[in-house]
Amino acid sequence: MTSQNKLRQQLTAAISAALDDTREESGAERQYRSASWLVDTLAEAIAAAGKLRAAAAVALRDEENMSLSQLGERLGLSKARAADIVRDYAKTTGTAAAPLPPIVAAIITSPEGVLAVRRRGGNPPWTFPGGAIEPGETPAAAAVRKTREETGLDIAAGRILGRRTHPETGRHITYVTARPASKVYFRRMSATDPDIAEARWLSRQQFDELMPGTYQPVLAYLDRDHRRQYKS
After folding, report:
1. How buried is residue 102: exposed, middle or buried, by Cβ count under 10 Å (0-12/13-18/19+)?
2. What DSSP character marks residue 35?
3. Model pTM?
4. Which of 79, 117, 210, 223, by CA, is between 20 and 30 Å from 123?
5. What does the DSSP assignment read for 167-188?
6. Domain ranges of the chain
7. Could you tell me if 154 and 142 are in contact, meaning their C-beta atoms sit under 8 angstroms apart?
8. Residue 148 has what pLDDT?
């Protein structure tokens, strides 16, 4: 038996014994006072445990950069319940989770298709190369740096397609177009970042299958300016 299971059994037994003692009290007033003490004690314990649970949930969300949907799925809760826990934590502590730095997504296209990476953590499974923008760094410079780190590919950054706050993660994202800096590049590349399992050029059909729900201005850009470059 683990120490946690043993503790749970001891707590259950203690509560059961306290209830039995309350029932055996002589006189309604003594029974009322005993029951009130038990209610107040359990309420304090529940409130303290709730704070611990909320703090742990927020820490898990921040450590693994989860959306509320992903946090809820991980904890076996609905997205709404996960949001309630995070909101209650902010209220009870008087603090909110530190804002996460803005990120850049590099929309890299070539005659081979659009470049995507598969993350080992599966959060999300497939995405554009990119990541956190460092203080003082431009989105274009961050796109070049993160693409080199994640795929080993040197790129020439282009224009900014758009900016938004991601509806699931709450992260502020800047989308930057780009192309390989050299005419010599590979259909498949070896990831240099340990968090990246694979980097691959995707055809349009593969892109639609692996990256549904992509930001609409990005889809419009791919359709309008680069449709002829995709290989079926």
Report:
1. middle
2. H
3. 0.60
4. 223
5. TTT--EEEEEEEEESSS---SE
6. 3-93, 103-229
7. no
8. 92
